[in-house]
Amino acid sequence: MHKSLIFYITISLVLISSAANPAEIKEEDKNEDGKTDLWIYYDDKRPIKIESDRNYDGNIDLRITYEEKGKKHIETDLNFDGTPDMHSYYEYGQRTKFEIDVDYDGTIDQRSQYRDGRVIKLERDTDSDGKLETIFDISDRQRNTIERIEINK
What we know:
By secondary structure, the chain is mainly beta. It has one helix spanning about 1-20, and strands at about 25-30, 40-45, 45-50, 60-65, 70-75, 85-90, 95-100, 110-115, 120-125, 135. A 10-stranded antiparallel β-sheet has the order 1-2-3-4-5-6-7-8-9-10, with no helix packed on it. β2 (about 40-45) and β3 form a beta hairpin. The longest helix is centred in the N-terminal third of the chain and has 18 residues, at about 1-20.
């Protein structure tokens, strides 16, 4: 019994340590001040995350996360306060959603949804109540094109 328990613990530790193998990280010093300001994380030679300190203050203000099935999420801290203010979401190279906090209060003020590279829904907090109002929504349409416009003279 004792030998069986030790065997199972040993096997479990080996499996856990191999599963917890950290991703390879490439670090760069873009402004040559001796401090890393760009990190690229790889999993099996595939980039899975990029982090950058764009203003060289020691804080990450751009993060790009690559997910499975061609999905990508970009977070950007526009005013360098430590909180992402802009989010862009992509699938297979096409933007699917865009969010931005234009007044830097920590709340998303505008959201756009995309299909085939075109905006299909736009929401904006027009009255500063913290809730997004729909500006337009054509997400239920199959196509984003206007086929005919009639002008009566």
